[in-house]
Amino acid sequence: MKDYQGKTAVITGAGSGFGLEVARIAASRGMNLVLCDVQQDALDKAAAEFAGHPVLARRVDVSKADQMEALAAAVKERFGAPNFVFNNAGVGSGGLIWENSLSDWDWVLGVNLMGVVHGVRLFTPMMLEAAGKDPAWQGHIVNTASMAGMLNPPNMGVYNVSKHAVVSLSETLYQDLALVTDQIRASVLCPFFVPTGITQSHRNRPGDLGADKPTKSQLISQAMTDKAVSSGKLTAADVARMVFEALDEERFYIFSHPQALKGVQTRLEDVMQLRNPTDPFEDKPEIGAKLKASLRG
Q: Are 97 and 150 contacting, i.e. CB atoms less than 8 angstroms apart?
């Protein structure tokens, strides 16, 4: 995409973090904003910030097909087909993989994976229709995954699974779009540890998917993630700028911390050489030893 003025951006998880920062850049480029979030107070605050811009703000649980379908219909009626869709809403959860309850799986996969699925299945046809009517029309879809979608850090199983699925979905979307159009692109965002509200996702967990009392492994995962995320040097605003650079450059992979790709290379070499997975704490054995001691103690 080269021209943003008057175009429309649909952003899920727009009340905070990457979503809010992407909305700020989109507004600065003259885009119409469709802001979606499950947290009403955060959504209201975000919408108020963009007073004076064309804004459609809706409380949406992205895991719910009917709510996403209603959103898509409202977007089409108000602005027509969106040019930029940022499927960004996400939640975090950890612990030993066999200790995740069924409600954990339903919640995390519902938001992290099915939220992206709904965004892709609903908005892509609208975008393709618009592109078919206008050879100058351009669009871009960005799905938020994680470095956990490229790696498999221990004690984070349900989250890893959801984010690997988003990477796979996004890579397939890129290839599928290339079969049918040159006017619509796709990208996947894989941030590492960046201070956002992801570690406090439980604040928006639905009551019907309430969590059981956390296990030891889940408490340990929460503490480790809190520490890692809070110590991140890059900001959500930095990552939002990377998203728009990728749109400008038509680049698929968006990595906030390219240095973390060393771990991805090791993982893929494990696969290619048919060797057992490498110890993720090989470079920081003291962290691995501490985690083992905590879980076994």
A: no
Query: How many beta carbons lie within 10 A of that of residue 87, not counting itself?
Result: 29
Catalytic residues: 159
Where residue 95 falls (left for φ over 0; alpha for ψ -120 to 50; beta otherwise) is: left
- Residue 139 CA to residue 137 CA, distance in Å, equals 7
217-221: Cβ within 8 A, 24+ apart? 217/94, 217/95, 217/96, 217/99, 217/155, 217/295, 218/93, 218/94, 218/95, 218/99, 220/155, 220/291, 220/294, 220/295, 221/94, 221/95, 221/155, 221/156
| Alpha-carbon distance values, 89 to 59, 134, 210 (Å) | 12, 30, 19
Q: SS3 breakdown of the chain: % helix, strand, coil, rounded to 5?
A: 55, 15, 30
Whether the CB-CB separation of 184 and 139 falls below 8 Å is answered with: yes
> pLDDT in tens for each of the 297 residues of the chain?
779 999 999 999 999 999 999 999 999 999 999 999 999 999 999 999 998 899 999 999 999 999 999 999 999 999 999 999 999 999 988 999 999 999 999 999 999 999 999 999 999 999 999 999 999 999 999 999 999 999 999 999 999 999 999 999 999 999 999 999 999 999 999 998 776 655 565 666 667 666 678 888 888 888 877 776 766 678 999 999 999 999 999 999 999 999 999 999 999 999 999 999 999 999 889 999 999 999 998
Q: What are residue 26's phi and psi, to 5 degrees?
A: -60, -45
